[in-house]
Amino acid sequence: MKISWFPAFLSLIVAVVLAWLAYDVAVDEQTDLDLYVAVGTAISVVLTLGVAMACKLENTKVGVNLKVWSGLMFVVMLITNFCFAHFGVKMPWYVVVTICLLVLHLGLVWSISRVNDV
Fold it and tell me: How would you classify the pairing of strands 2-3 and 55-56?
């Protein structure tokens, strides 16, 4: 697996912008999760969008599977983060759901990247 640095940098910029937006939504809703949602959004966007944009695999079929999976997880993570920011659910629920989704994503990325032949 190779990493292209320019798309990785672009995903970092997108993560910062979306984290600021999540922080703004959480502050507008008067929840105490504002900073936690911003940091969680930044981490989840970097891990999902970074894999979708910056990782290159030798096998193109496996690379497409990896990019599609990461793109789907990017959408799922955005929806969950903005729902938690808007509705202000308790902090332990946010942490548990976000970590479970990230562990699922990273586990499948690891297993997909180990496939050599499709």
Answer: antiparallel
